[in-house]
Amino acid sequence: MSNHESGLEELADRYPDVPRFIILKLDAQRRGIKLTENAFNAVQEPLYRYGRYSGVKGEETSKGVYPGPLILRDGTTVLTSAAAASQFENPYTIDHVEGKFYIHDNGRRIDEVDFTPRPDYYGKKTSRGVPMESIASARPQRIDIQPYRYCHFWDTQDQCKFCSFFTDLEEQRQLSDEKFPRALNVEDIYETVREALKEPGRISQINLTAGADYSGAVPFDNEVNRYIEVLQAIGRNFSGRFPSQLLAPAYTKKQVKRLYDETGLSSYCPDIEVWDENLFKWICSGKDKVVGRNEWVKRTIDAVEIFGKGNVYTNFVAGVETAQPHGFKTIDEALKSSFEGCEFFAKHGVVYLSLVWRPWKSSVFAGQKQPPLEYYVRLVKGLREIRRAYGLTSDNDDYKHCGNHGDSDLERID
Amino acid sequence: MSILPEELVNLLKDHDSVKILSTTDENGVPHAVAKGSLTTLDGITIAFNEGLDTNISNKNLVRSIWFDKSVAINVTKGGVSYQIKGKPYKCLITGPVYKEFLLKARERRGPDADIAAVWIVKPDEVRNETPAIRRKEEEEKRPFFNRHLDRASIKKTVHT
C-alpha cells in the first residue's frame, strides 16, 4: 500500500460524487474523536447528558459522562465514542463555542456537528429498580438491547479477531457479571421499551444483538429461545410486526422460521464479518467451528425465503481483510473481494453492508494497521452501486438508524 | 447572514399564507411543493419538515446539502409575496426542534401523523416579489422600458 494517505479534502476533490459528509464520517470512525474540556462540559447539560451501561474505561468519570453518537449537519449519524479517544493516534477534536459543537482536524475547523440528545427514559428505573439506560441504549432513532452480554466464542479463544464486545476496549477479556449482568430480565426489557415509546418521535426501530451462545440440542437453540422470549416481551408493546432487527449468528432455517413466526421481528442480520473464505476461517474461527463458512452463507440466503428480499442483512468489518499476515496486501485486492461478496449476496436479496474496522486494544488484531481513508471511500461508493443495481435498500441500517454504514448513507438520494 | 424583514417573518409565521418550496434534482429539473409547516424559528433561518425520507423534495434537499446546491422558497398572502433563495444547512432527525415539528404535525393531522426530518435553510437572498413593489423598483430603474402607453398613469386623460 502507498505511504501517502490522502485526507478528507483531497478525497472530497478526487471523488466529487461522494459527499464530504460521508467521507468525514468514515474518517471520524477510522480515527476516532476526542472532546475539548469545553465540549465535555457542554455534554453534561440535560439535553446531552447520556450515561449508559458500558464496560469502556473512562466512559463515566468523576467529572461527568460522555455523549451519545455524533450527528453531522446533514443528519448523518456517526457511531463513534469520545470515551474511546485513547485508542486512536490522531482523533478529530470536538470543541464547543458559543453554544455550538464543531469538529476540528489538527486545529482546523471542519464543520458544525451535534450529539444525539439524551432520551427521556434515561434516568428512569424499571419496577425491579433497574436503570433503564442499562437495558437499552439509544441512537438518534433506535434503541439497542443486548439481552445476553457474553460471547462464548471467547471461552475457547475463538472470538472474532477484531472483536471487543463486552470488554473495556483495553483488556482482552469479557466483563459481564463483573461490571454488568450477563443476562437481562425480559420484564425489564418490556418496561424499558414501553417507557421509551412515550417520547414522541424518538424511536423508529428496535435492535437486538448479544454475545453468541451456541448451547442447546441444536447449536444456538437456547439463544433462539431467549431471543423469542425477549421479542415476545417487546412485542407486547405493539399491535403487530414492528420495525426491528436481530443481529445474530446464522441459524438453521427452522430456527429462523421460529423467530419470524413466533415474534414481531421484521429483519435479520447474521454477520459474515469477512467475505473471503480462508480469511473467514482465520478471523472468525468460532463461527467457522460451530457453523462453518459455507453453511453460514447458505443459511443467510435461506433466511430471505422467510424474511423476504431486502430484510436480511449481513455486515462485514471493512478492513479486516487486510489484517496481516494472512490478509490482502493491496486495497485493490481487498475491494475486489468485498465487491464480490456484495454482488453474491445482492443476487440473493441480502443486503451486504460495511462498517469501519477499528483495531481495538482488547481485540486479537490490536496494533494492526487500518486501510487508508481512500479504501473506505471507494468501498462505500462501490457497495452502494452494486446494491442499487439489484434494487436493494438498507431500510433497517440507513443514515438515521445505525450510524455505522457509510454505504447505506449514500442511498438517501437513490 | 442577515435577519429576515419583519413583514416576511410575519408572513412565514402566518398559517394562512401559501408557502412553496422548490428544489432541483441531479439534472436540474425543478420540483415545487406546498409546505404548510414552513416557518422561521429565529428570524434568521427557515425551518420546515419533510414527511418522508423518500419524498422527491427530501432527496433533492439531501443532494443540495451534499453538493452545495440552492433551493428557492416563495411565501405569499394576498398581494404580498417574498422569494427566498438559500441552501439547506441542517437536517434534524431528533432533538427538541424535531420534536416540536412532529407535535405540531400531530396537532394538525392526528396522532398517527409522522415526519422524517426537519430541514433548516440559511437564506442567501431575500427578494420582495410583491407585484406593486417590483413594478415600482423597475420603473425607477428603467422608466421607459416596456410600459403600455394606454395605462392610466401614462396616458393623458382628455376631458370632453
Folded structure, characterized:
- The complex is a heterodimer of chains A (414) and B (160).
- With 414 residues, chain A is of the alpha/beta class.
- Chain A folds into 2 domains: 32-115, no CATH class; 132-413, Alpha-Beta Barrel (TIM Barrel).
- Chain A contains 12 helices and 15 strands.
- Chain A has helices spanning 8-14, 20-31, 37-42, 186-196, 221-235, 253-262, 277-283, 285-290, 293-307, 331-347, 373-389, 406-409; strands at residues 33-35, 60-61, 64-65, 70-72, 77-78, 92-97, 100-105, 108-115, 136-138, 142-145, 205-209, 244-247, 268-269, 312-318, 350-356.
- In chain A, the strands form 4 sheets. A 6-stranded mixed sheet of chain A has the order 1-6-7-8-4-5.
- The longest helix of chain A has 17 residues, at 331-347.
- The two termini of chain A are 33 Å apart.
- With 160 residues, chain B is α+β, with helices and mostly antiparallel strands.
- Chain B has a single domain (6-130), classed as Electron Transport, Fmn-binding Protein, Chain A (Pnp Oxidase, Chain A).
- Helix content of chain B is 28%, strand content 31%.
- Chain B has 4 helices and 6 strands.
- Chain B has a 6-stranded antiparallel sheet with strand order 2-1-4-5-6-3.
- The relative contact order of chain B is 0.17.
- Chain A binds chain B through residues 16, 19-21, 47, 71, 73-75, 77, 114, 116-117, 140-141, 199-202, 398-400, 412-413, and chain B through 26, 53, 59, 62-63, 65-67, 89-96, 98-99, 102-103, 106, 114-115, 117.
